[in-house]
Amino acid sequence: MKQPVGHYAYESRDREFLQERIAEFEDQVKRRLSGALSEEEFKPLRLMNGIYLQVHAYMLRVAIPYGILDSRQLRKLAHVARRYDRGYGHFTTRQNIQFNWISLEDAPAILRDLAEADMHAIQTSGNCIRNITSDEYAGAARDELMDPRVHAEILRQWSTLHPEFTFLPRKFKIAISGSPEDRVAARFHDIGLLARPSENGPLFRVFVGGGLGRTPVVGQELFDSVPEAELLATLEATLRVYNAYGRRDNLYRARIKILVQTIGIEPFREAVKAELAKMDLSHYRLTPERVAAIRARFAAPELHAVDDADAVLAQHQKEDPAFARWMQSNTHPHFDEGYSIATVSLKTPGDIPGDVTAEQMDGLADIAERFAFSELRVTHLQNIVLGHVRKDQLYALWQGLKELNLAAPNIGLAGDIVSCPGLDYCTLANARSLPLARKLGARFGDARLQEEIGALSINISGCINACGHHHAGHIGILGVDKRGSEFYQILLGGQAGDRASIGAILGPALSEDDAVAAIARMIDHYLAHRNEQESFLEMVTRLGKAPFKEVAYETV
Amino acid sequence: MKLFNLSQQHIIPAEEADPVSLAELKEHPEAAYAVALEPDESAEALRPFLAQITLVVLHFPIFRDGRAFTQARSLREYEDYKGEIRVTGHVLPDQAAFLRRCGVDTVVLPDDDDQTEWEAQLKRFTITYQQSIAS
After folding, report:
1. Does B104 touch chain A (CB under 8 A)?
2. How confident is the model at residue A1 (pLDDT cuts 50, 70, 90)?
3. How far apart are CA A391 and CA A409, in angstroms?
4. Least CB–CB distance from A160: residue in B77, B129, B131
5. Which CATH number applies to B2-29+52-60+67-124: 3.30.1330, 3.40.50, 1.20.1070, 1.10.4030?
């Protein structure tokens, strides 16, 4: 088989490992059904295989390591959606996909089907190191310093069934980027890594103790420049400190961010250094040979730009204004002048953010095969990126997306709403988030209006666990339960990335319709009073929340 | 109670072991050869006594509490401890390979416990993705 572009090509041992893992899970299901395992004992074991018990059914969360899929894998996901679910799947903010309607009895068979395409659901849940997330423009963006995916794969392998770190105090999320833009929200992860090249090989800036959830915290720098050779040793040392000293008496105080906050970043760093001092670093050394061996299993796209691509593209844009608008919002500069990065919006106005039907999955797999080296990237904003599209083929690509109803020109705009599944599916939720997402999506569905509003992120979570990252949205919405009714708190001014900050609560929670109306009034206020070229977030930063609060609550 | 032997090393029979607590060990180090560490006690605390210790017992209050994995690995890696490491408390056969790979030798099981599941789990994975203290 030809090696896949953008992700690691399995070898026979990786496939054997998956079969061993599935056999183990099959046995665990049997022991649960026979009563040999109690539900309390079975729960963490099934969670570490991606299986949750939700409101209506079991849910399976399939891992998409560092967000990269190939066409063959996406077709397999379409098959799972059709055969075992209700014909669709939901892409999550952690670059995974969830199937919401599966039965436990089918789970081993689904895992076997997924394994045929070198996919699994290992550690997509549970108190262990979760799927490693990465930059959706990795290996393609013009601003990138280095492609982080080879190291993401090394971390995936290192964290898979790690004997010491599979029963941690709480879940542990690692993200890695190789761009100065920090497109992975490194400061909102348990560990965030920013990779950069140097004369002596890659260096990693390490952030620790960030996260959203009940207690949103911006991560702090643990080390500025960890050399590649010491990357695994540094992660081992950090996890050792966390496993030994993280709280286990209170579920809500158990994340590493609480430990770092409690003892302080300086003592935490000293504790990690003390571990490193006790370790034989040669034993943990990530060698250039090892990195090269993993890198050799990644195929690079063979780019062949055509001379007149720019002229062809300009002509297409001139002839079709709708395409020109999509180009404006949904493409990003590629390092090769003849190529573009295209983002497929999974936020069709009025639809559920991140939901994709089996037909759309098959269609996207075909499109990726035709235009993008069969490589697709799931983003932490619940969209799909095609990393390498020849500029003269963008128009044909867009037409194909239109046929799939996936051509919404709204990336980074008001319609590009991030939302968790909410109370419609999730047992943790206090309120539904999808109806609000659909209403807002429809309210700002008009492409011209979105273009006028400009850059705006709206994030919705159905409870304080913050799967919709509401603290990090320019406008954040949090579902709360008020005496048995669903209400929505509005937050203002959050952002991920370089200048990561946590949104401030605007005022009392509102009903669903009042929340939509309040947000509409805030945006109207922005449009009427903004300075030239000023984005919504810049205006919030300049004026503070007071004027927005005033308009938001004016009729309440 | 009976012992399940993970590592096939020579082990101290269950009825012979009479571990003291860390506090007792510090107070009366003479003659003690077996010590029980609580999950919040560090392996390093045993350093002054390890020459005389041949059995360290670690405890799982519940199988989800993974601190003993770090304690066991620390004893082997940092303290170069060669004696027996035993675990008690709530552990699952599904943890067998993790325990062995972190340097644990024996698991205390109820007398009526079926050991076949433990045997099966030890053989389940032929492939691992990390270096560890024991394979």
Report:
1. no
2. low
3. 17
4. B129
5. 3.40.50
